[in-house]
Amino acid sequence: MISQSRFSKGALAGLFVAAFGVIGGTAYSAEVSTSDSTPSAAKAFTPPAEASMPTDEFGKSIKLGEQIFTHTPEFAGKYVGNPLNCASCHMDAGRKPNSSPLWAAYLLYPAYRSKNGHVNSFAERMQGCFRYSMNGKAPPLGDPVLVALETYAFWLAKGAPVGEKLPGQGYPKLPPPALKADYTRGSQVYAQHCALCHAADGQGQSSGGKAVFPALWGAHSFNWGAGMGEIQNAAGFIKANMPLGLGNTLTDQQAWDVATFMDSQERPQDPRFTGSVEATRAKYHDSPNSMYGEKINGRVLGAP
Amino acid sequence: MSAIATNVSSRCALAMGVVAVVLGFASTARADDMMVGKTIATQGTAKGVAACISCHGAQGEGNAAAGFPRLAGINATYLSEQLSAFANGERKSTIMQPFAKLLSSNGRNAVALYFSSLPPPAGIKAGDSTAITPSNTGAWIATRGRWDQGLPACAQCHGPGGIGVGTAFPPLAGQPAAYIESQLHGWKIGARPPGPMALMPVVVSKLSDTDISAVAAYYAGNVGSSNNAVPVGSKQ
């Protein structure tokens, strides 16, 4: 059923390389107590309480941003190509540490990104979310959707030090797995810990016309250009946040394995597709953390 | 090209024929089960199972005053699993355990199928207000959770407006507040089995008695006909 030749030789060695050079120890959620936090670690930032959200004209934009963030298809429908919400991957409406919280992201822009080779504003960074994670199209700069989202992020970051990488920023960088990450083991982790909600076929579940459990692969999921399609990001997200309400209960090994399984499935084409899977991989996915262009179960991922 | 198309279409036709036959048998069996289920629900059984509707309402709508849950429109797999759990003693209820034990496995499945086929109470909305504030504890826990404690929002699993999702996450909307409260307390004291992935015991460990009352009131109020203080499903 499952091809044994699914990984290129360098892929897993690369996983190890990729996981070095990360900040150790501080990145775990306090949701389930762990012994990983170091006493010297900076205190986690706490965004403003919801109740303190202003109610003036500025506050209305904050609120709109929050609504777009939590109900993206309803409030930004013309820019999305799947039924996911921003909050599908940024839990607690962008507040939760280790779930790429908005307050931490806001502080890190403008920033140079190797992904597109220039300095990106925060708004341009969010355009990428729409284009890749939402499999949609980027709202133009200055569009009310981007303005509201930026306003919401700005408010959440109130009082935080600009330019500093705060504890809880991004997804945790997991240490390399003890065993090579493995698709088959990942499929077993998936069946046991994920399929109840995301369904055995990864297509998630909807109710009342709304996606409740997001599709993890396939036509209704994020596309090949999304950060979550990179195994190290998915592993960190899963470790800290999944299963919902049971974050940090999977082992690092389970997180690496199931992330590898999830990111070894078909999903919508990378919008930067050059016309050739090989060339697109070479240009945008030349990483052991991307399975794009790899042969899995007899099929080349990303092949039209 | 056309040979391939012909081949494909003939194979499709054959497959559709097989499907139609299977569905034909299935629908006959389903209709039979439905009749058995309806009989149990409305008349009880000779072995002493009381008619379900005597407590759960003629349309399976439940009884808010008594805290008897609605069964109408709830997924058959979920209902059947609950009856099995009553029968084997995993789920405690002095009322339900004896009845569930008296039913055969087929009878439990049939009555579950019957109630799942009834329409849910009118006015249940597949959405929550987007104008909820943290001071509204029930609505806030329902729609946002309390993530600084690692508590997910109810809606993240039970769907928009708590209408339920799939076979594992039953509707909360339109259930009597007393029923929701008793079940949440039931997980605290072990009267309900942990359920799928033992998600609910973790959830209730983070809910105070006040939280439980508030969230129960929120979902009991998600029906159009009731006098609820919470504007549900309003969109801006």
Helix content of chain A: 25-40%
Order of helices and strands of chain B: HHHHHHHHHH
For this structure, what is the CATH class of the largest domain in chain B? Mainly Alpha
CATH classification class of the largest domain in chain A? Mainly Alpha
| Beta-strand percent range of chain B | under 5%
Brief overview:
The complex is a heterodimer of chains A (304) and B (236). Chain A is mainly α. In chain A, 37% of the residues lie in helices and 6% in strands.
Describe this structure in words.
The complex is a heterodimer of chains A (about 300) and B (about 240). Chain A is mainly alpha-helical. Chain A has 2 domains: about 10-30 and about 170-300, Cytochrome c-like domain (Cytochrome Bc1 Complex, Chain D, domain 2, Orthogonal Bundle), CATH 1.10.760.10; about 50-155, Orthogonal Bundle (Cytochrome Bc1 Complex, Chain D, domain 2). Chain A contains 13 helices and 6 strands. In chain A, strand 1 (about 110-115) and strand 2 (about 120) form a beta hairpin. In chain A, helix 2 packs across helix 8 (about 145-155), helix 7 (about 120-135) packs across helix 8 and helix 9 packs across helix 12 (about 250-260). Residues about 1-40 of chain A have low confidence and may be disordered. Chain B is mainly alpha-helical and about 240 residues long. Helices cover about 50% and strands about 0% of the residues of chain B. Chain B has 10 helices and no strands. Chain B has helices spanning about 1-45, 55, 75-85, 95-100, 105-115, 135-145, 155-160, 175-190, 200-205, 210-220. The model of chain B is unreliable at about 1-5 and about 225-235 (pLDDT under 50). The interface of A and B includes residues 67, 91, 92 and 206 of A.
Q: Top keywords for this entry?
A:
heterodimer; A: 304 residues; mainly alpha; Cytochrome Bc1 Complex, Chain D, domain 2; two-stranded antiparallel sheet; 13 helices; 6% strand; B: 236 residues; 10 helices; disordered N terminus; disordered C terminus
